[in-house]
Design a protein that fits this description.
about 170 residues, alpha+beta, 2 domains, 5 helices, 9 strands, about 30% strand
């Protein structure tokens, strides 16, 4: 069975975490503070580990094939506003003219699957950008930022709202 290990961080001080953000029945201990260096800059944040539970094994099976991260075929059913908010909090970068989803570790086929869901399900205007050879990112254009804010803001930690320019 698998467990989750998550760290949320921002700048020099850890984000505020509501008690409902980490469910006690999934975790055997409370979140702890963590610090370190990322991309040459100091950070601090909160981290937590979950229990090993069958539900996490099921999720792992959906999103990993032979140890490689994938976008599952049924992403349309799986990607909710809450899940999109977590994707943005964990793997997005605010840009002056939109938002970048850092999807570098996915294949181009998986990124096309994800971008199709973003366009069809959430009506977002987005494109694929080449970061480096065989590394692609999804760019959500500025004209979709008001819509994405409406979709994800209720599900985001206040310390992460800067990612959607709030």
């Amino acid at each position: 069975m698998f467990y989750l290990y998550l760290t949320y961080c921002r700048g020099p001080s850890p984000p505020a975490v509501r008690p409902t953000d980490v469910r006690g029945h999934y975790c055997s201990s409370s979140p702890s503070r963590t610090t370190g260096i990322r991309v040459g800059k100091p950070f601090s944040g909160l981290q937590f580990f979950t229990r090993s539970l069958p539900c996490f094994t099921e999720l792992h099976t959906l999103f990993y094939r032979e140890g490689v991260k994938i976008i599952p075929d049924n992403l349309y059913e799986l990607l909710t506003p809450v899940a999109l908010a977590h994707l943005i909090m964990g793997d997005a970068t605010a840009k002056s003219h939109g938002l970048i989803l850092c999807t570098d570790s996915y294949s181009i086929e998986d990124i096309v699957r994800l971008i199709n869901v973003l366009i069809i399900k959430f009506r977002l205007d987005c494109t694929i950008r080449v970061e480096r050879k065989n590394q692609y990112r999804i760019y959500i254009r500025e004209r979709s930022m008001n819509l994405i804010r409406q979709i994800v803001k209720p599900h985001m930690c206040s310390s992460m709202l800067y990612k959607i320019k709030l």
